[in-house]
Design goal:
This protein is of the alpha/beta class. The chain has seven helices and five strands; from the N terminus they run βββαβαβααααα. Strands 3-2-1-4-5 form a five-stranded mixed β-sheet. The longest helix has 19 residues. The relative contact order is 0.19.
Length: about 210
Amino acid sequence: MPRLPTSPDLLPKVIMGVDPGTNIMGYAVIEVRGQRVDVLRYDVIDMKKLGTNHALKLKRIFERMLELIDEFLPDELAIEAPFFGVNVQSMLKLGRAQGVAIAACLSRQIPYVEYAPTKVKQSVTGSGNASKEQVAHMLRQTLTLPPIEEASKFLDATDALSVALCHHYQKGNNLKAGGKSWGKFLADNPDKLAAPVAGKKVAKAKAK
């Protein structure tokens, strides 16, 4: 009997999410297969030790992104657009950091999509004004997260994870947070909003 072709929806897709930063850049890698989402890794690129040398930071971003790309072979990159603030110099530096991360992916022929911060929050929590803590808490309700070594890195890493998940949702595979939204979760569990901590390790997870 001839073998039936595999549905495209069941083929694994690897998505890398990036939350740009000039001192700390969050990144996350998820694998999507149908309605199943596995978190392969979420962590940060820490550039604080490089001091104020912006060129060295950009070099570090580019090199680390290439390492991650070669390790996980993502199909697509989802990256958060810079949030426009009042400090023009900070915005310029943040834009360069984002551009270098995109350039690393393009050098490996990986397409990218940019998402506004409010779009990311809306997709994950149901509110475009959600805080970092609310985003992280909702992710812990909908995904099994690998452990992360330092709690101080958690919010930067979960921000990147939310970008990757937002991109997945835009493809028509919205898990709808397991049927939940941030507002509904708070309504059902008014006393359970707490500081986020790392979840349990999944079999495929790689924490670093």
